[in-house]
Amino acid sequence: MPKIRTLNQLSHLKESGFGQPWPRHGLKLLYWFAHKYVDFDEDNAMCWRYDPERRWYGFHPFENRYDENVKLLPDTYLPYYEVGNLGKPRAHKLPKYVRGDYTGYHDNSNIDRVIVRVKDEHFDRVYVTEHHGESEYNPRGTYRISRGLIKIIQEYTLDGFLMDTQNISLIL
Q: Are 113 and 82 in contact (CB under 8 A)?
């Protein structure tokens, strides 16, 4: 398994290219996740507002399968869940700003995902990745999102977050 880079700052997220260019929805998905899905408790644990096991917003189990004899994420007994497939049941509950550019076709408007690892009643890890084809993920486009970065995102408005994370050269 290749080493997964941890993104700790907005500049790291911007440099990664995750969720870019348009019509990708990853940055908006990550913003929604940070603002509407996760809270921090007094021990700094990332707690969910809605149990991902209940499949709200299109969450579903992520099978960390081997792709060319390599797993995308660290092998563990802890379960993983993913969100972001706009074609999944209940994904229509995601806000319009996340779903707005979805075409319904197999194109870049639906390749971004947030994957969480669950431990007890909180998220142990948060990852972002790119999904291609039926079951393939891009290891080079997979990053761990730190607790600190989630907290930084929580301080932003959507417009401010997008302005500070979009790489304008990728958009043009």
A: yes
Residue 64 lies in a domain: yes
pLDDT tens digits along 47-65? 999 999 999 999 999 998 7
Counting the structural domains of the chain, the total is: 1
Residue 114 lies in a domain: yes
Does 4 score more than 50 pLDDT? yes
Token code pair at residue 70: 């390599």
Residue appearing with tokens 């379960």: 79
Per-residue pLDDT at 138 exceeds 70: yes
Residue 110 resides in a domain: yes
Omega into 2 within 30° of 0, i.e. cis?
no
pLDDT in tens, 9-51: 999 999 999 999 989 999 999 999 999 999 999 999 999 999 9
- The range of the structural domain enclosing residue 147 comes to 5-164
- Please report whether residue 15 resides in a domain: yes
Lowest mean pLDDT among 88-92, 114-118, 126-130: 88-92
Q: What is the DSSP string of 93-152?
A: GS-HHHHTT--SSSSGGG-EEEEEEEETTEEEEEEEEEEETTTEE-GGG-EEE-HHHHHH
Q: Greatest CA span in the chain, whole angstroms?
A: 44
